[in-house]
Amino acid sequence: MRFGVLGPLAVWTGDGRPVRVPEVKVRALLADLLAHDGGPVSADRLAEDLWGDDPPGNPVNTLQTKVSQLRRALGDGRLVAFEAAGYVLRATDVDAARFAALLDRARATADLRAKAALLSDALALWRGPAYADFRDEGFVRTAATRLEEQRLTALEEQAEVRLELGEHGRLADELGELVAAHPLRERLRAAHLRALYRSGRQAEALAGYDELRRLLTDELGLDPGPELAALHQAMLRQDPSLAPPRPPTNLPAPLTGLIGREQAVAEVGALLGSARLVTLTGPGGVGKTRLALAVADLAAGDFPDGVWLVELAGASGATATVAEVVAAELGVRDDTATGSRPGVRPAGLADRLADALRGRRLLLVLDNCEHVIEQVAELVDLLLGAAPDLRVLTTGQESLAIPGETLYVVPPLGLPAPGADPREAASVRLFVARAAAAAPGFVLDAASAPAVAAICRRLDGLPLALELAAARVRALGVRAVADRLDDRFHLLAVSGRGRPARQQTLRAVIDWSWDQLTEQQRLILLRPAVHPGGCTLEAAEAVCAGPGLDVAHLLHQLVARSMVETSGGSRYRLLESIAAYCLERLPHDDPAFQRRDLHYTELAEQARPHLHGPAQRRWLDRLDTEAPNLRATLEHTTDRALALRLVEALAWYWYLRGRHREGRASFAAAMALPGARSPRARAWEAGFAMLTGDGTDLLERSRTAARGLDTRDSRSRWFLALAHLSFGDAATAAGLLTEALTGFRADGDRWGEAAALAGRAKQAMFQGDHALAERSGTESLKIFDDLGDGWGRLQASDMLGYLAEITGDYERAARLHREGLRGAEDLRLWAYASYRLSSLGRLALLTGDLDGSRELHERGLRLAAEQSNNFAEEFARVGLGLVARRAGDLDAAERLFQQSLAWNRRLEADYGVPFYGVTLLLAELGFIAEQRGDTTTARSLHLEGLAAARESGDPRAIALAQEGLAGVAAAEGAYEEAATLLGEAAALRQSVGAPLPAGERGDVDRIAAAVRAAAGGSLD
């Protein structure tokens, strides 16, 4: 029977099964007997210990009952015996006795490792405070206190042994909690201070001494003892004797600092603390070796038997086995007789290595394992099984794939984020440091930052490639280095002297990895290089097809070898340098290129119908992901039929994403191929040209393209109408929309019908027909809702929101624009989101929230600028001008309006028609001139605006010009003329069902007030 008091009271059978001792008094009886270490305890003493001042009626009989119950629980009546001096517990196996015996053995041994092991075994017996469930009872207090003191002493002895073994790193933190619980124990404190000091935490060590000195003075009126005082003085003078014993090592001293790997060093160090085998993987040049060396150097204090680096790049079956290389580095000799026989490998060397490492606390770093991976895996598995205190850190391009391995994929250094300070990126910090070393005087400034960022991105943040590139800065300058990365293998071919041959050039780095691949792996690696944006497994299979090729399995092997990257196993990509290497090896006429072109053309055609309906977002996202591959296909293919298929399939995608220039250029390129003829393509190219303003005679080209269309090609006509509406050419758009709407309805094309109705609503708005705009917009919105088309809902609701704003229903307008903003953000249609932000800004302006309006317009302006959308940018800028004038900042308002007017004038010159924004801008500038007292300039501006408004045919624009002229007349004292003009403007607004809302009456009310004052308070 075994008994435990080092924690809650416990009893076990000889084979370890717990024995239940029921009832508190029976357990208390057992604890009392155990506390006397096998000595007799009188019945009177036991009775007093169990019941104190409240004994039962017959204590002796009751005690006998409890003794009987204890004997039954223990299952052996002989264990509790009654002798002349009292009751005795004949326990031969008590954990407290085992603890004391282990302490005695530890103190008797001189071997530090054996001592540490014995102390660890002794302390492992503790399950909690001694006699934990009875520690408040007086009868065990003396025994519990004695045991606790022994435990603390054992912990102090263990700490001192560990310090001698060089384990100060972890010990510094482990002792912290113990010192906090026992702050006055000087021996414990001394061990903690030494551990802190040796761990480089000298300030904490000195603070710990000051804390102890203060506690001793305050609580005991004493000073620290002489040993502790001497330790304090030694720390103050940084006595070399306090330095930790440096474990033996062959780690090379680093020649340069490790940059950008702070987090990785901490993460790998933590893994090495909990796992016995850690493998660093990643592509060649990512910095696996440097990271391993940094981690190993920091961890050296935890391995008193040393940290040993074994470089395996030169190991092979023909020269030396892995076991031989490791044995030679560790100094393990091979004395077998077979070693002298030519051609016969020494037998049992791995086993002798295992014997040599058994019992040693050592870190083994095996570098560059990929080409001898099977040998390494076999040896490491054997060594870890034989040597429980061994830790192994390996580097290679794939894992060892043995039990117990923890894998850490070393990532490239962080790249500069768009819009962020490039100096914050680890890749930039490394490049700048190495470039400054190679070219003294080089600094990262505003002029060099874009080139440095481009270098870091194009080299994928690979440290070795960045260092090779940085070495060229002195000869070429940073901009030339960036410009020459298309020929990176020549550029980075002569910069790596001082490194191993396999790392002296970028090509050599990849050659080393290439040489490790099988023929099938090489074939599969080459062909995904034709996908600059990475590819799905489906795309890889389409391009890599071949007899006997399991593409998925081979890709998995390449991922494991760090030659291919994967995102969740669903997408594969090559680092740019590896892709460039593969494209050099891939013949220009390889069928992979044609297979890729066909695959992405079919994908675009598959996506095309889904861009009009509920799956719009999902397919937009998918095409976004494949955009680099789609561009590569467009740039490569010379098949005119395939090119036309592709651009026509992608046309609506380009429009939705606001990539109008890309759309125009792609259609132009396809049409330039020999024999390419497509009226539809010509129409879409003309429409995109209008949206971007690129080219000459745009209106005539658009009209010519429309005349060449098939009568049933309603969508191309509608797209041309959309382009005309983008700058207010309602007259041309009206005819195209009528034809398109008729065709859509004849074909039963509900999406086309809804799109044409949305266009008609916009056309009607320009022409002042608000009733038609309301009907068309409402019908369009209903159809788009039924179809689940998010873009369509944006179009229809935009016009309805604008109509609500015109009629003064700001609540409805705000609701529609907020819904539109959410829809645009959900689809990531950022140009539309900009418009909605500015529209909400207009509503804030009309309701008097100038600060809110300014913020919304500024957000809209930033978003438009990011998308290079000049129209959305202009809409936001005009809104900021309106805010400035409302706020009384006439100078800022004038500057913004003049900037916008100049832009609109350029559009008029380019397109040859009046632009719809001109009338508003002329009116606003006229009001500013009038408010400043310059009536001559004001009249000229308003008359020009009136002429433009009459040409456009918009009644509201005409009314605005008349209101401006009324202001001029009032300022010049022509109050009767002013009253007449105000009346005509009001009637004109009323005729189209859009009387001026309260939020827009600021100028009219101001002018009317002046007229009333002059007329004696009346204005008819």
UniProtKB/TrEMBL annotation:
GO molecular function, one term: ATP hydrolysis activity
Known DNA-binding region: 1-91
Cited Pfam families: AAA_22 (PF13401), BTAD (PF03704), Trans_reg_C (PF00486)
Record-linked CDD domains: BTAD
OmpR/PhoB-type domain span: 1-91
Record keywords, A-Z: DNA-binding
Domain of life of the organism encoding this protein: Bacteria
PROSITE patterns: OMPR_PHOB
InterPro entries the UniProt entry points to: AAA_22, BTAD, OmpR/PhoB-type_DNA-bd, P-loop_NTPase, Sig_transdc_resp-reg_C-effctor, TPR-like_helical_dom_sf, TPR_rpt, WH-like_DNA-bd_sf
Record-level GO BP terms: phosphorelay signal transduction system; regulation of DNA-templated transcription
Family statement drawn from the similarity comment of this UniProt entry: Belongs to the AfsR/DnrI/RedD regulatory family.
The protein's name in its UniProt record: AfsR/SARP family transcriptional regulator
